[in-house]
Specification:
By secondary structure, this protein is of the alpha/beta class. Helix content is about 40%, strand content about 15%. It contains 10 helices and 8 strands. It starts with about 30 loop residues before the first helix and ends with a helix.
């Protein structure tokens, strides 16, 4: 019988401590409709550049797709919200382009995650007078417990829907500061979105409660699931703490293989924005199942499996539950 996998297990378990428009009729309206469709489509897909068209609305730039989606739910139609990065982009090692610097210079508000995620933020905002807000303000971070980053804050706070309620409140206040005429709308939108977050959080816990006690170990490539693991009562083990150039060391791979064997972990997962090679190696070495891809640092395209943050949480919870129970 496998050892107990209670969430309080001390083995690499920060979980215990602790991302279409419509065409109109008649020829006289075709071109304006196409222009509108393109603008909406680019916004929804997380286009990295702010539009050159001045529609009289404030421009908001979020640092990555998950954050942009949260901001859009709070903003409604009152401002233009864009993501600096495109779907599928790895955020940790991102390097802003000249086009990104222009977008930042044009923005009225720049929303970052904070907790050390955007180490390049000062470069991005070097020529920008935009108001800046850190979405994780007021959130108690969980620590990274392994590797060179041990003791630093784990930046993936958005993987807890409870935390994202605070994201929404913080963003609503920042939007009200740059657009006071719609302050009440932003606050109302944040409350409505928070109700959806409560529902998705409850669904997450209910879905993962189906995982048997002796299989409640979540093994992933990056340690990006500390907040989700804490919410769901899972034991977390990962190959590397945060995405970096030197990710999977031989020693860490050996430790992960031993953990999977010792606890008879049924499946191993990896994130959508990283190399799946280490996961595949663990699977071959241990006989565990390939649990598949999880989404963390980026949403998918609109026609992909996780075009919104709520979809991301649903997808990940379902994938983890199936991987650990089937």
């Amino acid at each position: 019988m496998a050892p107990s996998l209670a969430p309080s297990s001390p083995t690499h378990n920060p979980g215990s401590r602790f991302t279409a428009s419509r065409h109109r009729r008649r020829r006289a309206r075709i071109l304006p409709a196409i222009a509108t469709a393109l603008a909406v489509g680019l916004t929804a897909s997380g286009c990295s550049a702010l539009s050159d068209d001045d529609n009289g609305k404030k421009d908001v730039l979020a640092t990555f797709t998950v954050l942009a989606d949260i901001a859009r739910n709070v903003a409604g139609d009152h401002v233009n919200v864009n993501s600096l990065t495109k779907p599928g982009t790895e955020i940790h090692g991102y390097d802003p382009t000249p086009s990104d610097l222009k977008s930042a210079a044009k923005a009225d508000l720049i929303i970052s995650n904070g907790l050390g995620l955007e180490h390049w933020l000062d470069k991005l905002t070097s020529n920008s007078d935009a108001k800046r807000v850190v979405a994780t303000d007021g959130i108690e971070p969980l620590p990274i417990t392994d590797g060179e980053a041990s003791g630093e804050d784990n930046p993936h706070a958005w993987m807890s829907p409870t935390n994202v309620k605070k994201y929404a409140t913080t963003i609503a206040k920042a939007l009200g500061d740059i657009d006071p005429d719609h302050k009440d709308d932003y606050n109302d939108n944040a409350k409505k979105y928070s109700a959806k977050l409560d529902t998705i959080g409850n669904d997450l816990r209910a879905d993962l409660e189906t995982v048997p006690q002796d299989k409640r170990a979540l093994v992933t490539c990056e340690g990006a699931f500390s907040y989700l693991a804490k919410d769901a009562g899972l034991t977390e083990h990962y190959i590397w703490p945060v995405n970096a150039e030197t990710e999977a060391t031989p020693q860490r791979m050996k430790e992960t293989e031993e953990f999977v064997r010792e606890h008879q972990v049924p499946a191993v997962f990896c994130e959508s924005t990283v190399d799946s090679g280490p996961r595949e190696q663990i699977v071959r070495a241990t006989g565990a199942k390939d649990g598949g891809i999880l989404y963390v640092d980026s949403l998918s395209d609109q026609d992909g499996p996780v075009p919104t943050y709520l979809d991301l949480i649903r997808y990940d919870a379902d994938t983890i539950s199936k991987g650990l129970t089937s």
